[in-house]
TrEMBL record:
This is ASST-domain-containing protein. It comes from Knufia peltigerae. Residues 1-17 form the signal peptide. It comes from the Eukaryota. Keywords: Signal. PANTHER family: ASST-DOMAIN-CONTAINING PROTEIN, PQQ ENZYME REPEAT PROTEIN-RELATED.
Amino acid sequence: MGLTQLIILSLIQVSWATALPTGQQTSSTPVLCSTDSRQIAVNASNNATWPWQTYKSSTAQPPALLINKTGDPLYDGLIIFATENGGTPAAEQESPYIFNDEGELVWSGPVDITYNVRVQTLNSAPVLTYWSGQGTAGEAAIAGHGYGKFIILDTSYNVIHTVSTNLNITLPPGVVTKSALDLHESYITPRNTLLVSAYNTTPADLSSIGGPKNGWVLDSLAVELNITTGEVLFSWSSLDHLPLNKSKEPLGHSGSNATAPYDFFHINAIQPVGDNYLINSRHYWASFLVNPKGEVLWELNGYDGGDFGNLPEGGTFSWQHFARLQEINSSAALIHWFANNNALALDAPIPSTGLTLQVTIPPNKASPPKLITNFTNPQNPVAAYSQGSFSYLPNGNGFLAYGSNAVLAEYGPVSETNSTEGQVRWSAQLGYGESLSVYRGYKSVWHATPSTEPSLVVLSAKDVQNDDLALCAGTSTMRGFVSWNGATDVTDWIVYTGSNNTTLTAVGRVNKAGFETQFAIPAGAAFVQIGAVENNSNFVARRSSIVKIGGSS
């Protein structure tokens, strides 16, 4: 890392502490002593980079999550998100990640610009999906979208689909890409199609809002694709259906040329609602229900409620993300957003919230929306000027990702607090201020057995800094380090040793500890191999390569 010095922190925070050695030999089963081997590193020459975790058997360098929790019940799922650096290198490694809620890494994806990693369902099977491509930067008028492709992984982390199409749209000058899918939305529908957003650089008459007659805009598109063929099944243009003068985004210096088009709508969420589509606009402060013909059926905005009537106290919103309808019946529904309530980092900050309104279906101004949640933490409010998500979890908790502020939080049900603000039961910080972003974050059930083999590294105990196994390793002078990137259900490791690489014998069991487990290799072994055991069974799911002690595999 050049002049960068890695310092292993002596951490006070319990959330960052490594586990103590576990396991001694029992009377019936030889259990080798082991420990969670992760270490926390910092960049001594750059205080903008958040501390990260390091391992011996993996090149992953995920952020160290600074966790606070109350001990109240949490949803039993895994934390899923991708990190995105801002103007400064705030994360040591930009990747999509899966963690448990103790802050232990489960999976580290490709080191790349990725967004919106999440668990979805395709053809009745769970899949892991994310967007990969190039984002836009520069002035606010052109920043905040991207051009890329959509990746679908199975439960072995094999790529089963790559959705890539240029959509026949016009790109800004200087942008070269084979696929024009935007980073904001990638939603697999119940009909096994894909909803995506896109931004088309388009000529437009801006004279009605004080701009040039021969102006330029970013036309937000909502598109439904056939996942296998890339065929466009539905396409909706904001420019074709909505007036420019309803936008809350100032024209400023944008709109005069294709290099800086006016982003009047800024699409950031699409959801299928039966045969219709819920489309969210950050710059209109509004969500729209659109039918298959592209007609707007209704509008719900954050200042006067639109077609739904006056908003309740605490129910206004602006610059919002992640609009979702749920619990829909013939007369009512819940709609929720991550309500940013901020546009620029320089604005006087307003707390961002997880906002839920109960609305009458179809809209009836005589029966206006009711406030259900406004999840926020009054003791430690977070103001996110961009990005963010808010999801309901199956146990009734709410999960928020604070976008441009790298904070995640799980709230308990409002029914247990008698307050629409809810109560934070778990939170994690993984960046300084607004230097690191988490566009969306999720908590989901995910079970995976990677197609790759476990990774095993062997070192001499004298070469291990701060050897935590010295007191329990007996005569062992060698240490093994094992991880299996993405494995969710490993509970134990079986250790095989031998005098040659053709006759290995199981000599002990190691309790899995964290993403990477350090264990003592029995004295006298010339070769060692590890087998992964899932769900406390006696079945070895997969073995590592054989490693020669003191040499190569």
